[in-house]
Amino acid sequence: MATTIIEIRGLNKRFGVGDAETLALRDVNLKIKMGEFVMVTGPSGCGKTTLLNIIGLLDRATYGEYYLDNHPVARISKRKQARLRNEKIGTIFQNFNLIQNMTVIENVALPLIYRRVGKTKRLKIASRMLGRFQLNEREYYLPNQLSGGQQQRVAIARSLVGSPSIILADEPTGNLDSRASHIVMEELREIHEQGNTIIMVTHNANLTAYATRVINIVDGRIDSDININKHTPKTRNRRRK
Question: Mean pLDDT, to the nearest integer, of 81-94?
Fold first, then answer.
């Protein structure tokens, strides 16, 4: 039986105060097992991205419990949370979040700085990761010299460079045309098949075909949670040679 890697109990998230208060998440209970490809769907403003940000340790719940790989997240310091995030989580953003004055290879190597990997070694690791995405010829380009699809593949390479067990993707195809979207989703499919756990937020119902599980959120609550009968990979973080 697959190990539970994420567990959330009675999670709530509030924004604002008084008359302006909004409850973005309401009593969310959720378990995610290692090796799942979970799609989180729902209308705009339903709490999808808020949930992803809390799972990714980019935000904190107002109350409720969150366990990441058996670590009780609410009870550890922000510094320890940052270290946990760097070790276990890779994040892919809709707007790529690449640093525009850094080259492609420097962007991909960035997470390794926080692990105190030396410059020569981290650039070698980043170059190897870019080779996986057929982007070696563009290592010393700046992000604005790439297409949207290429920038998203760079962002995926960056999310993987530290060998995290969990990949979080927030609308990773939202700014891409259909061809680039297909390429990105096929890359995510391959990453999943190699053993990573993926949690992806999307508005596009057609993309749920890639998932092993689909969670729909409405008004901050889980409205449905459907397992799709697909093989869940048993290997973890196995890279192509």
Answer: 91
